[in-house]
Write a structure and sequence with these properties.
The protein is of the alpha/beta class and 358 residues long. The protein has ten helices and twelve strands. Strand 3, helix 4 and strand 4 form a beta-alpha-beta unit. The chain starts with a strand and ends with a helix.
C-alpha cells in the first residue's frame, strides 16, 4: 500500500515509539506510576511529563505555557470556551469543524470570507465587539498558509485575542505569533490521543474540564507519561529535521505536479504547505476512483468530515461549485514518503481517471 494521507495522520516516528515504550511499564517495572502521585514512581513519571512539556514547548513562540490535552479538538474547545471576555468570535470560513462548530455553539460567531486562493485577509467587516479571531496557520484540506503576521498585528490593535489552529503547521513550519495555538501530536509523527494548547503568558482561561485540578487546574485528568513522552520525542525530532523535511516535501511536490499535469490545484499555488496537494479533474467520480485505487491511501477531503456526503466547506468557500468540490482529491505526503510512492500513485490514479474518459 502507498500512504498519501498525511493531513489525516502521520506514521509514528521510531524515535517516538521508543520513547513511549519505557512508560508502558508492566508490574515488574518502575515506569507505570501515576505522574500525579507523590511517591518515587509518581515523581519519575512526572519528570518524564515535564521533559516532554519542554520538548513540545520548544517549537512554540517564547513567552507562553503548554497545557497537555487529549488532542487539538479539546485544546481548541478550551481556548474558545475558556477565553476571558464577552463578545463575538470571528473565524475564517475554512476553519476546521473543531473551531467552526465550537464557535457557533458558544454563540455570536461571525464567519470571515476567504479569496479564491483560500487566504483570509483583515480588510473585511466583522462585529465591533469581536473578542477573538480564530485563523488557522495551514489549512488541512488545501494547504493554504494564512497571512497570520497581518492578523497578529491587527488583533493586537483591536484588543482582541488571536487563536491559531496550528495542527498542520506544528513541527513543519515556524509557528506564527498568536495568543493561543492548538496542536496535535499525531500530525507530526507522534501518538494519537494527545495534543496541546499553548497560551501566551498573562492570558487566564476558565477550565472546561474539572475534577483533579491537573495541568494547573485547566485540564483535569491523569496524564499518560507514555503519550507525553512520544509527543515530546516527536517534537524534538521535528525541531532537528524541520529544514530537511521542508526540502523533502517540496521535492516530492515537484514530482507530483509533473505527474498530475492536466489536474487543477485547489488553493494557493504560492502560499502553501508543499506536502498537501488538493487536485481536481472536471467530471471526476471520486468514489469510483477511490474504489479502483484501493491500495493507495488518499482522501476525498478532510478525514474528520468523510462520509457526510456534503461537499467540502473549504472548497465551496474558495468559490468551487458543488460538482467541482466533489471532483477533488487530496494527496498528503511527508517525511517517510518516497519518490516511487508518488510516481506509482500518480500512474494508478491517472489510469483510473482515464478509464472514466478523463
Amino acid at each position: 500500500m502507498i500512504y498519501l494521507d498525511y493531513q489525516a495522520t502521520t506514521p509514528l516516528a521510531p524515535e517516538a515509539r521508543e520513547a513511549m515504550l519505557k512508560w508502558l511499564g508492566g508490574p515488574e517495572s518502575e515506569t507505570f506510576g501515576n505522574p500525579h502521585s507523590p511517591h518515587r514512581m509518581g515523581r519519575m513519571a512526572a519528570a518524564a511529563v515535564e521533559v516532554a512539556r519542554e520538548q513540545v514547548a520548544a517549537l512554540f513562540p517564547a513567552g507562553g505555557r503548554v497545557i497537555f490535552t487529549g488532542g487539538a479538538t479539546e485544546a481548541l474547545n478550551l481556548a474558545i470556551r475558556g477565553a476571558p471576555g464577552a463578545g463575538s468570535i470571528a473565524v475564517s470560513a475554512i476553519e476546521h469543524a473543531a473551531v467552526l462548530d465550537t464557535a457557533r455553539a458558544v454563540g455570536d460567531c461571525h464567519v470571515l470570507g476567504v479569496d479564491s486562493d483560500g487566504l483570509c485577509h483583515p480588510d473585511q467587516e466583522w462585529p465591533s465587539d469581536t473578542r477573538m479571531f480564530a485563523i488557522m496557520q495551514v489549512n488541512n484540506e488545501i494547504g493554504t498558509i494564512e497571512p497570520l503576521n497581518k492578523w497578529a498585528a491587527f488583533a493586537a490593535r483591536q484588543g482582541a485575542l488571536l487563536l491559531v489552529d496550528g495542527v498542520q503547521a506544528y513541527g513543519k513550519l515556524p509557528l506564527a505569533e498568536a495568543d493561543m495555538i492548538a496542536v496535535s501530536a499525531h500530525k507530526l509523527h507522534g501518538p494519537k490521543g494527545i495534543g496541546a494548547l499553548w497560551v501566551r503568558d498573562g492570558i487566564m482561561l476558565a477550565p472546561q474540564q474539572t475534577g483533579g485540578g491537573q495541568e494547573a487546574g485547566l485540564r483535569s485528568g491523569t496524564l499518560s507519561p507514555a503519550l507525553c513522552a512520544g509527543f515530546g520525542a516527536a517534537a524534538a525530532l521535528a525541531a532537528t529535521r524541520m529544514e530537511a523535511d521542508m526540502f523533502r516535501v517540496k521535492h516530492l511536490e515537484n514530482i507530483a505536479r509533473d505527474a498530475f499535469a492536466g489536474w487543477h490545484i485547489n488553493g494557493s499555488t504560492e502560499h502553501r504547505w508543499h506536502g498537501n496537494l488538493n487536485l481536481r479533474r472536471e467530471g471526476l467520480d471520486v468514489a469510483r476512483l477511490m474504489s479502483e485505487c484501493r491500495t493507495i491511501m488518499f482522501s476525498a477531503g478532510s478525514a474528520c468530515a468523510s462520509g457526510s456526503g456534503r461537499p467540502s466547506h473549504v472548497l465551496t468557500a474558495i468559490g468551487l461549485t458543488n460538482a467541482q468540490a466533489k471532483a477533488s482529491i487530496r494527496l498528503g505526503f511527508g517525511r517517510y514518503t518516497s519518490e516511487q510512492d508518488i510516481i506509482a500513485a500518480a500512474a494508478a490514479i491517472n489510469a483510473a481517471a482515464k478509464e472514466q474518459g478523463l
